[in-house]
Amino acid sequence: MDAQNIIITCVIGYLMGSIQPAYLIGKLKGIDIREHGSKNAGAANTSMTLGWGLGFLTALLDILKAAAAVHLVRCFLTSEPFNLITPESFTFLPFLGGAMAVLGHNYPFYMKFKGGKGTACAMGLMFGFDPLWGLIMIATLMLSTIITNYLVVGTVNIYLVMIYLAVFKYGQTEIIIISVLLGIQGFYKHRMNFKRILDGSEPTFRGTL
Description:
Layout: H1 3-17, H2 21-28, H3 43-50, H4 52-78, H5 92-106, H6 119-129, H7 131-148, H8 151-170, H9 173-189, H10 191-199
């Protein structure tokens, strides 16, 4: 595989992902979102700090930027902009572009690498790569959260869906490796949430409504 295309893909994905709606919306409201609530620059903390409306907008923009990264790579490097759900579109570079968007979201250079946790971006990656499974991923997040009453459980389950697809549907070694690494990062980013569940201090989903 052409190393130049891999580098271009990583740059496109990372720069798209580093656009931080939570941070920018917070600044418009006169705050640094990282200094409030869970101190995380993501949709969940935006919801808790600035309300569900702005939280939903943040999540939507985070999903769109990762999906856009997938499509930009597909357009520029694979010349397959419209083959959204055909086997030919399940290629390494677009998936890598979306994965780098997750990385850019979590570690934006201009925010001293203190960004979000990547949940919405991971769903955006899947929306851009395979829209049907993007919907299934959102359904998994919602059902898991409602059943367990903890958003973090739904978050972890979306990575399990991604890894399942990588292994049993796409079957490419590179995609499997990236999916596993994203899953590990997802677990790591949410480790404190699980710790708070164990000590009883994690906010419940229904308790935040």
